[in-house]
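can u do me a favor
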């Protein structure tokens, strides 16, 4: 952990620069929230936190997501920039599904990269299906010390150049769904790995726990309601999103989420084709001065040709 002298910043640094530095320290371990990036469209991005989700839809499903968090801070336009790519598919001869999730997170001078390969064993359970999954991958973390602007020419707490390190990272999860309901529990950073940077400093990851659940309720032949919750918990940190999306003709959706102790999230999107999905999210921060956030998501499904009919729970609508 870095310890900064009171005169770390020159006097001409404004409040935005100070807030960026504070956010950077969040990624360094003072607060663990951003060790797992924050997503507002989490109901469409389940593989990012739960390996038990892999293969649950009976297609080869891909998604790409970009998030600009706390816009208006930093030279890049936001204090935190996150990109996520995921792909998963059912593999019948493996009795389950496989997936790949890649997340890149940049917070000021700090950067994190996570790569996770997942396998989920799938089995029928009542009127639905249960997936029990495990993920294995790598977590890389680093900081570019040359980008800091200390008041002192030499500060032993700040690396002179870029430093980084990586560590094996594990996750696990269970995911159950029918055509209309889903619920999942999972954990990331199971072994709580400690990343050692090339300059000898350490970056400790904390175990995170997740709970997701959602329901698809048909109001009439063209309108449906999809309420959901997302809970993330780690030592000293928690995030709770309560969401409701209204879906028109299974083609377009709009909704709102309430994030506890932060604010509101506005969501909208549409299925451009049966396989191509587009969505956006806009966070309105109400309890701190850090600014709003914007998120965009693209998803595409490649259908798998089969000789047998796919069970109805393999097509969980918007879930």
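np, heres the sequence
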């Amino acid at each position: 952990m870095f310890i900064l002298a009171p005169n770390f910043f020159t006097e001409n640094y404004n409040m935005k620069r100070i807030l960026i530095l504070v956010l950077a320290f969040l990624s360094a371990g003072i607060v663990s929230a951003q060790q797992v990036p924050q997503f507002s469209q989490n109901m469409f991005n389940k593989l990012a936190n739960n390996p038990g989700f892999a293969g649950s839809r009976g297609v080869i499903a891909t998604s790409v997501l970009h998030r600009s968090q706390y816009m208006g801070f930093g030279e890049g336009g936001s204090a935190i920039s996150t990109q996520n790519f995921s792909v998963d598919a059912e593999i019948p001869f493996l009795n389950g599904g496989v997936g790949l999730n890649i997340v890149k997170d940049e917070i000021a001078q700090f950067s994190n990269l996570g790569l996770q390969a997942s396998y989920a064993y799938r089995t029928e359970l009542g009127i639905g299906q249960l997936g029990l999954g495990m993920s294995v991958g790598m977590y890389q973390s680093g900081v570019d010390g040359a980008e800091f602007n200390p008041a002192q020419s030499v500060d032993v707490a700040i690396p002179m150049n870029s430093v980084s390190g990586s560590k094996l990272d594990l996750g696990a999860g269970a995911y159950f769904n029918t055509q209309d309901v889903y619920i999942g529990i999972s954990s990331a950073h199971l072994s709580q790995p400690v990343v050692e940077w090339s300059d000898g400093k350490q970056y400790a990851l904390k175990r995170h726990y997740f709970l997701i659940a959602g329901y698809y309720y048909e109001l009439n032949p063209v309108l449906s309601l999809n309420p959901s919750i997302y809970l993330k918990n780690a030592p000293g940190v928690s995030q709770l999103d309560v969401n409701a999306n209204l879906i028109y003709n299974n083609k377009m959706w709009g909704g709102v989420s309430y994030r506890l102790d932060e604010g509101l999230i506005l969501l909208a999107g549409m299925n451009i084709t049966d396989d191509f999905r587009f969505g956006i999210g806009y966070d309105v921060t109400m309890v701190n001065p850090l600014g709003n956030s914007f998120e965009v998501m693209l998803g595409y499904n490649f259908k798998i040709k089969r000789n047998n009919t796919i069970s109805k729970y393999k097509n969980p609508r918007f879930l």
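The longest strand covers residues 128-144. hope that helps!!
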